[in-house]
Design goal:
- By secondary structure, this protein is mainly α.
- It has one domain.
């Protein structure tokens, strides 16, 4: 089956528009997945367990510190997790920001 050159141009245009429009959605999906996974607790504990050095995550480390009443370490780890999340999300959103979307009158 031979496609006419005009149809190929239209197909390329549609494909590029879909990729451009889908890029924002994919970025949002990745960011939300990252944020959800970073704070995930229950599934990790049920499926992976809590084997130190093997399946221990940051959220489980905070849980262990609170359970052992080591609140200072739990606060420090939670602050580190919060700072890491904030910086990562800020960088991703700053890189994907469209200046004309904020101030369309310019």
């Amino acid at each position: 089956m031979v496609i006419e050159p005009r149809a190929e141009e239209m197909l390329a245009l549609v494909r590029s528009e879909i990729e451009r429009a889908g890029c924002d959605g994919m970025l949002t999906a990745v960011i939300l997945s990252f944020a959800h996974t970073l704070g995930e607790f229950g599934v990790v504990l049920m499926v992976g367990g809590n084997l130190p050095g093997s399946t221990r995550t940051v959220s489980i480390a905070i849980y262990d510190d609170v359970q052992s009443l080591n609140l200072s370490a739990a606060h420090q780890t939670a602050l580190l997790l919060l700072t890491f999340s904030f910086v990562t999300l800020s960088v991703v959103y700053a890189l994907s920001r469209k200046p004309w979307a904020v101030a369309p009158w310019r």
